[in-house]
Please model this.
Amino acid sequence: MIQLPSFLIISAIVFTLGIFTILYKKNAVGILMGVELILNSVNLNFIAFAKYVDVGINGQLVAIFIIILAASEAAIALAIILSLYRERATIDVTLVDEMKD
Amino acid sequence: MSNLNSLQYFIPELFLIVAILVIIVVDLFLKKNKKIVSAYLAALTLVVTIFLAYQQYGYSPALLFKGMIVLDSFAIFFKIITALSTLIVIFISLPSFRTKAEYYVLLLIVTLGMFLMVEVNNLLMIIISMEMVGLISYVLVGFNKHDLKSSEASLKFMLYGATSTAVMAFGFSYIYGISGHLNLDVIQQSLIINQPQALPLFVAFMMVLAGLGYKIAMVPFHFWVPDVYEGAPTPITAFLSVGPKAAGLALLIRFLITLVAHPSAGNAANFIQNVSIHAPLLLAALAVATMTLGNLSALMQKNIKRMLGYSAIAHVGYMLMALVVFNNQGIIAVMFYIVVYLFMNFGAFCVVESLTDKLGSEKISAYTGLGYRAPFTAIAMAIFMFSLTGLPPFAGFIGKLYLFAAVINQSWYILALIGLLNSVISLYYYATVVKVMFLNRQENAPPLRVALYNKLLIGALLIPTLVLGLYWSPVINFTSRSIGFLFGK
Model:
């Protein structure tokens, strides 16, 4: 029988991986993937808590909503990245520094 | 309250939703040179929405949609403030965005998101409403898509925003795990009865602060501010510095009441004793960091929008300072300051917007001798600058007076002292703008013609800045009446 801590440990690992992806990736799409990892760890947490703590469907509902949010966020993010790519022909965030002092 | 019964208390939002759809459809039938009509329609929508929201003032507090959102006078106050800020932004945008109906529709959608943000009572609703404001803001920042700076600002805003929202959602998942509930009022009851361990709650609290702190541009989640403020179209910069920030502060206050304030102590004053997360001290440290970093960085700025961006960070620091005491006096001070800040900050940005095209530059040095080239605009700018500093007899002084009074009343003397020192520092960079405009004279510079429309708008923002400095009791009375919270009392 898998218990609650197993889920929490997995989601904590995924969360950490997501944070490291965001910190170390230079590609904007890579950073987005890190954000998706974090959101997935959130989903895992909510579903695990819904099963073991709340005993209802609240947590699962949140997970569904977060999946939708992640999709809409990715749509807008990719549109922005695309419009930048058209101007600069790069999506390396370290090279995008028009406004650095 | 059940879903169907709730609808009658949801009229401003419903009206806004219908108006958004109508404007989108109407825009399809407008000719290219008549697109400005949809901007007028958007402004009209907001006026009606403010009126409808004000109508709700008499209602007794209620939980709507099975506890998803809450209707209380606090929410209504912030609804009026956020709708007003969008309305002013539409007026500022009119000269530069004449043919873009979708721009105004997006602004209306952000307003709807901010309405939801200030009345949430549910963790899921917090995430959804913040994303609603966030996603549309990313698009608005990058609205001039052939402008490289605008696209870059949009990218940075989006990457930081997505990360901080995701981290906040992770914090929410822990709060859900600790309490087993999603509605804020039930979470509060659960926290009091079950007395959870401090560590997980502290971790969750910090993660949520990352998301909320990002929205209100609190140090250390402020990285996006200077670049986004510089790159975004000026009306949007002005909008970001007031509207979403006010909504974020409202959300922060509501969230703090749930997590750290005790409901049985008579007012929202007492921080929960059994949860040792030291929220007042933490907030005090964040407030000091926010205003000091904002002010010190603003000293070195050459670009006026960047300078105003850092000054916006500093002002968040002042407001956080009053949140540290977290009694009714502090919250009233913050709410009053937001009203004052709305007028003076929009005023400053309105001057910048009306001069940028004429001067062809956003550098502070371009303002040299402006006092002789465009006297009215320059004097207005000087008044806004002094008001932002907090000098009497302008509105900013009264706002700061209330903030400091709230802090000193609860014996946070060192915090008040640091705040005071910060105000002195801020005088330097605000006064620099005034000095450049009036003391330095450009030889043979022709007079600048600022459009009458812009002058009227600046004048309309100037009047409250001056009047509120001398006669502010109606506003403070209005704010005091708006302090009703459904829970946390």
Summary: The longest strand of chain B covers residues 62-64. Residues 148-179 of chain B form the longest helix (32 residues). The beta strands of chain B are 62-64, 69-71. Chain B touches chain A through 40 residues (CB under 8 Å).
